[in-house]
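testing teh design pipeline on a random one, pls ignore if ur not involved
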């Protein structure tokens, strides 16, 4: 296949693993969700990330990125709407009441739904950094060949993203099992919310 061989696949897989498994907004959110709601209830959130990011990558490669370049006001609006939404998510994480230690009572709030997690990728600063880096590094063709490269790259990210976000969700769920008090889990969620707020810094540096 044009531009795609074993070394390309291995390099792209290593890149996607490094990007997917390292701390960022998605991983902070699923870790907090795992601690608060457990792995099973966080499944749709994890799947939304794993599907939403490759879809975003394909969309950018096929012209969405160029459209935003031609209309910078749309990009600017997305930046600030995204920042406001991420601050709301941080508050949502910090204020959620864990159900794991709630004496049998359901926790307050709910995990992100599939479509919410998928759409979140478009306002995730780390997702944009990864997309730009991946397309610049692993695509060298035009037309049908470009589409093929992007589709394979998206499939690699999908396959790598699922175990990565599952690991972070399991870390959060493990924290809930080890630190069984509501207070301890809430402190963990506050830390994850702080990390989510810290991930907004690239938005302000860009501006």
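output:
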């Amino acid at each position: 296949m044009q531009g795609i061989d074993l070394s390309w696949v291995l390099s792209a897989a290593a890149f996607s693993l490094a990007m997917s498994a390292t701390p960022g907004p998605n991983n902070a959110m699923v870790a907090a969700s795992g601690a608060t709601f457990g792995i099973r209830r966080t499944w749709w959130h994890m799947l939304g990330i794993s599907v939403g990011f490759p879809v975003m990558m394909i969309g950018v490669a096929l012209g969405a990125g160029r459209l935003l370049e031609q209309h910078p006001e749309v990009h600017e609006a997305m930046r600030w709407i995204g920042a406001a939404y991420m601050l709301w998510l941080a508050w949502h994480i910090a204020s959620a009441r864990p159900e794991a230690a709630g004496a049998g009572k359901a926790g307050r709030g709910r995990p992100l739904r599939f479509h919410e997690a998928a759409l979140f990728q478009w306002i995730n600063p780390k997702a944009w950094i990864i997309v730009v880096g991946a397309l610049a590094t692993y695509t060298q063709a035009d037309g049908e060949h470009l589409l093929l490269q992007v589709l394979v790259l998206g499939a690699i990210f999908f396959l790598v993203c699922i175990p990565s976000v599952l690991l972070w969700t399991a870390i959060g769920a493990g924290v809930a099992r080890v630190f069984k008090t509501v207070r301890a889990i809430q402190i963990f969620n506050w830390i994850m919310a702080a990390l989510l707020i810290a991930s907004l810094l690239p938005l302000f540096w860009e501006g």
